Amino acid sequence: MNQVYEKVVKCYESIKDRIPLTPKVALVLGSGLGNYADTMDVKAEIDYSEIKDFPVSTVPGHAGKFIFGYVKGVPVVCMKGRVHYYEGYPISDVVLPARLMKMMGAEILFLTNASGGINPSFSAGSFMLIKDHISCFAPNPLVGANIDELGVRFPDMSKVYNPELLEIIRKTAKECDIPLHEGVYVQLTGPSFESPSEIKMLRTLGADAVGMSTVVEAIAANHMGMKICGISCVANLAAGMTDNPLTHEEVQEASNNAAPLFRKLITESIAAFV
Ligand code: HPA
Q: Structural domain of residue 64, as residue ranges?
């Protein structure tokens, strides 16, 4: 068996008896959403550290576990904390959790993150529905022998973000009176923030928001045929757009402030998916 796939299978085998439900939605919680489980009917939790060889995040505020439960009656597996490529893990480990959640039965991958706003019409604390991405600055998680059990060698990426899910999220945002921008998310490796010239380049390329996650997970999930959607919380305007230097603390604070509305948008969208 392909070694990357074997690792996913081993992780699954080691926890499958502790999974209390078949999740419909796999929800990845970005910065600020760490307390999302408070709004769930939680049935079980599994610390990443209890799963042999599972990549464990080293970022403050990202320590992790899977949380299983119901969001308005919808069975969900939630990732509290994700690993990032900049932590030094191979890219196959960065997407291992997404593959594992598909193996648990999840059909929908709901990605969230915090980002820097590149589009000048965005402001700190606003939300952006991810309608497409730019992946070419991050390593492609499908490089290496294809995992035939999961998907094809050359997967189409023309509609990574599922049009029906996006429509549901738009409608939900409107009903909840939550302003929602739309745009293209670009993933860079980090961990350094971008330079002003890089931001100018990314804007020219068509990106509206920049971050250090999400796209590689979306590629791996699309390879497996999952339905994908994503919302980014614009935590700050990107480098060079204001006079302020960027800090992780500022990103966390802005994400925390936006969290109540973000939680509501996620919860109501998940309820509307079924
Ligand atoms: N750049 C990259 N990643 C980020 C940013 C940013 O400005 N803000 C939050 N995550």
A: 3-273
**Contact call for residues 246 and 47 (beta carbons, < 8 A):** no
Q: Is the CB of 129 under 6 A from ligand 1?
A: no
Q: How many independent structural domains does the chain possess?
A: 1
Ligand 1 center to 238 CA (angstroms): 7
pLDDT digits (tens, 9 = 90+) for 150-178: 999 999 999 999 999 999 999 999 999 99
- For residue 212, give the ligand 1 atom closest to its CA: 3
Helix ranges (H only) for 56-139 are 91-94, 96-103
CA distance 223 to 96: 13
Catalytic residue among 31, 222, 232, 255: 31
pLDDT tens, position by position, 32-45: 888 899 999 999 99
Beta bridge partners of 134: 186
Q: Is the CB of 30 under 6 A from ligand 1?
A: no
pTM of the model: 0.96
